[in-house]
Structures are given as structure tokens and as C-alpha cells.
């Protein structure tokens, strides 16, 4: 949060068990107060890729876990990444087990294109997990 941003106070009502759980959560995370934790949670919620306009410029990652023994899946995933090469900055490949691999794809571009890339990866047979996580790019003029 910038130094110049005005803080606006508002009230929030929580059931007692939920606030107790929330207080434990923020203590474990190292927050010094509830407001900081709620601000971070609000920022994270607003960065949900599904909520962004299709032409929003973002940067982020696509994390996936897949079974590399599924017939032709590694080759298909490579081809998909080549099809979206203009959105991909870098990739990291990790061998988790004899069958499982994890890839982290660093991306930058319009959210609409990154959603298509994520959905294309996620729907492949043998992909066990795929997640798109993004943040806004600052506008430079």
C-alpha cells in the first residue's frame, strides 16, 4: 500500500468461532493486526483471473502436475507451449516421482490468452492439476 493512500474504516461482523479461527490464522502468518490480513485477502480475491476483463495485462504463473507416462502428453504439452510462446517468459520442469512431473510456466500477456493457455493445459488427459495465478502489470507511460 502506498503512503499516499487514504485508509477508510468500516465495520465487519464475524461469528465468534470464525473470528477466533481468523485470529489464529493471522497470528500464524505473522500479521500484526486484522486490517493488514483483510487487506491482503481482498487484494488476492481481486486478482482472481476469472474476475478480470479479457484485455487486462497481467503477469503470473501456470503451475501444473502431470503424469509423464500418459501417451504423448509431454510432447503435446510442449506443442501447446509453442503455440502460446508469445505469452510464455520461462518454464521450469521438476521430476516429483517416477510418474509425476511439475512444470511452472511464467507468463505475461492479456488475461484472455493466458486463460486459454491454462484451460488448454488443464483439459489434457494426464494433467492432474493446473492453476493460473496472476497479478496486474503496472502501466508504464
Helix and strand arrangement:
Elements (H helix, E strand, L loop, with lengths): L15 H14 L4 H13 L10 E11 L5 H11 L4 E8 L4 E11 H12 L4 E10 L5
Antiparallel strand pairs: 1-3, 1-4, 2-3
Describe what you observe in this structure:
The chain has 141 residues and is of the alpha+beta class. The protein is built from four helices and four strands. The chain has helices at residues 16-29, 34-46, 73-83, 111-122; strands at residues 57-67, 88-95, 100-110, 127-136. The protein has a four-stranded antiparallel sheet with strand order 2-3-1-4, covered by helices on one side. Strand 2 and strand 3 (100-110) form a beta hairpin.
**Secondary structure: number of strands:** 4
**Helix vs. strand class:** alpha+beta
Radius of gyration: 19 Å
CATH class descriptor of the largest domain: Alpha Beta
Strand content: 25-35%
Number of helices: 4
**Approximate shape:** globular
Provide the residue-averaged pLDDT.
88
Our count of domains comes out at 2
The percent range for helix content is 25-40%
Q: Looking at CATH, which topology of the largest domain would you report? A: Alpha-Beta Plaits
Amino acid at each position: 500500500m502506498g503512503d499516499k493512500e487514504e485508509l477508510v474504516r468500516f465495520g465487519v461482523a464475524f461469528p465468534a468461532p470464525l473470528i477466533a479461527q481468523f485470529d489464529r490464522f493471522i497470528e500464524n502468518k505473522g500479521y500484526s493486526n486484522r486490517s493488514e490480513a483483510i487487506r491482503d485477502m481482498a487484494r488476492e480475491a481481486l486478482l482472481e483471473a476469472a474476475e478480470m476483463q479479457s484485455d487486462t495485462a497481467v503477469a503470473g504463473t501456470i503451475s501444473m502436475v502431470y503424469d509423464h507416462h500418459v501417451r504423448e502428453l509431454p510432447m503435446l504439452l510442449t506443442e501447446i507451449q509453442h503455440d502460446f510462446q508469445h505469452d510464455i517468459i520461462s518454464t521450469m520442469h521438476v521430476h516429483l516421482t517416477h510418474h509425476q512431473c511439475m512444470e511452472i510456466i511464467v507468463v505475461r500477456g492479456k488475461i484472455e490468452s493466458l486463460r486459454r493457455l491454462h484451460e488448454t493445459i488443464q483439459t489434457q488427459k494426464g494433467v492432474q492439476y493446473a492453476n493460473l495465478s496472476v497479478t496486474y502489470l503496472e502501466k508504464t507511460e
